[in-house]
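TASK: fixed-backbone design
INPUT:
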């Protein structure tokens, strides 16, 4: 009840300020609201290459965003109420821009009555999906009718949703309740990185500079999806001591954890375990990793572009399906071995039980439209006069 009241106050304030700002003329300006940054950074770069100074760039960063936008030619603002004056400026830009890009669910869209010709494009932060979200999130049964109504109002503001494959288009269509004509099959912008040899080499040099030990040992990257209960516990599902004893001579372990877990994590195995939860570039970590360990995350979609093995540590599969839900009717179709315990995980790593043909097939299916030119294609699609 208190949460809904706070949301109501926030949205009422936003609606009033947005209405006042909307009285100013619309400008040739693109606003990016970003929590993750990967897609935003690529599209900003494409905009500046193709559109030049014809379209002003404004980036609104939420507290979750760790991406730096220091080198863009544009304005970067802190999109938080506590940064009050920047927040007011942010609303002004949202109300007077011709194009809006977002990379997450943002409640303010429910009350943002955009001008007639404004185009709002969803650059969702995940290139694929295993867990359910949006209208199909099983937690919706515990939410109020008012909250569900707000969700639908937000999704309806998406004039376009960018997708990298037909499977993801089908998932978005169900999750957001939108017609097929809303989807842009231009590919996922942040995957452009994996087709750029110069950027890949720069990434390798950067991660080696920060972690020189990876030149002598293989890297395991553990990147699980976020779980609701992680807000109340700092526990890690892996038996790190067992992994240290079995694998530390040949491997090091990178941990990419939920902030609530990471902030409480005490590393008892320095030299083997490295907490990289706040490392600014997930791409650098994927480049460094020899094996990805994950569960219900979308990270395998990008990682498959590197043609490297992955393991699915699904220790709580039945509970997760019951509480959150997954899209895959048969989880065994994931592109890698499924393990339930740390012992099984160690055994899989030691015996290298991987089928790389499965990874290749998965990559082809889920990166269908992503070919290294997604950002450029998206920009030309939205600004056809620049073709």
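OUTPUT:
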């Amino acid at each position: 009840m208190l949460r809904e009241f706070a949301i109501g106050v926030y949205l009422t304030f936003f609606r009033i300020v947005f209405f006042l700002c909307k009285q100013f003329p619309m400008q040739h300006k693109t606003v990016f609201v970003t929590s993750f940054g990967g897609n935003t950074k690529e599209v900003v770069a494409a905009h500046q290459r193709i559109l030049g100074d014809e379209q002003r760039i404004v980036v609104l960063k939420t507290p979750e965003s760790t991406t730096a936008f220091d080198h863009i030619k544009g304005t970067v603002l802190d999109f938080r109420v506590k940064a009050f004056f920047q927040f007011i400026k942010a609303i002004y830009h949202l109300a007077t821009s011709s194009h809006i890009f977002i990379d997450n669910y943002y409640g303010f869209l429910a009350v943002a009555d955009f001008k007639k010709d404004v185009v709002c494009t969803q650059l969702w932060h995940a290139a694929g999906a295993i867990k359910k979200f949006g209208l199909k999130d099983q937690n919706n049964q515990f939410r109020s009718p008012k909250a569900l109504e707000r969700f639908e109002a937000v999704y309806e503001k998406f004039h376009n949703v960018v997708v990298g494959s037909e499977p993801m288009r089908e998932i978005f269509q169900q999750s957001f309740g939108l017609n097929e004509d809303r989807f842009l099959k231009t590919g996922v912008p942040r995957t452009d990185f994996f087709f750029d040899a110069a950027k890949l080499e720069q990434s390798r040099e950067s991660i080696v500079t920060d972690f020189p030990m990876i030149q002598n040992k293989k890297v395991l990257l553990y990147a699980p999806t976020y779980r609701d209960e992680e807000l109340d516990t700092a526990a890690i599902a892996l038996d790190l001591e067992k992994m240290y004893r079995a694998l530390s001579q040949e491997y090091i372990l990178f941990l990419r954890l939920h902030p609530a877990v990471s902030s409480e994590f005490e590393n008892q195995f320095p030299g083997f375990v490295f907490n990289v939860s706040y490392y600014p570039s997930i791409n650098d970590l994927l480049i460094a990793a020899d094996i990805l360990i994950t569960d219900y995350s979308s990270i395998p979609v990008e990682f498959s572009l590197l043609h490297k093995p992955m393991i699915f540590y699904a220790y709580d599969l039945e509970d997760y399906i019951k509480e959150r839900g997954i899209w895959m009717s048969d989880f065994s179709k994931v592109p890698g071995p499924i393990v339930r315990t740390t012992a099984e995980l160690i055994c899989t790593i030691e015996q290298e039980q991987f089928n790389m043909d499965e990874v290749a097939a998965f990559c082809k299916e889920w990166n269908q439209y992503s070919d290294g030119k997604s950002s450029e294609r998206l920009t030309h699609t939205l600004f056809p006069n620049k073709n």
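COMMENT: The longest helix spans residues 2-21.
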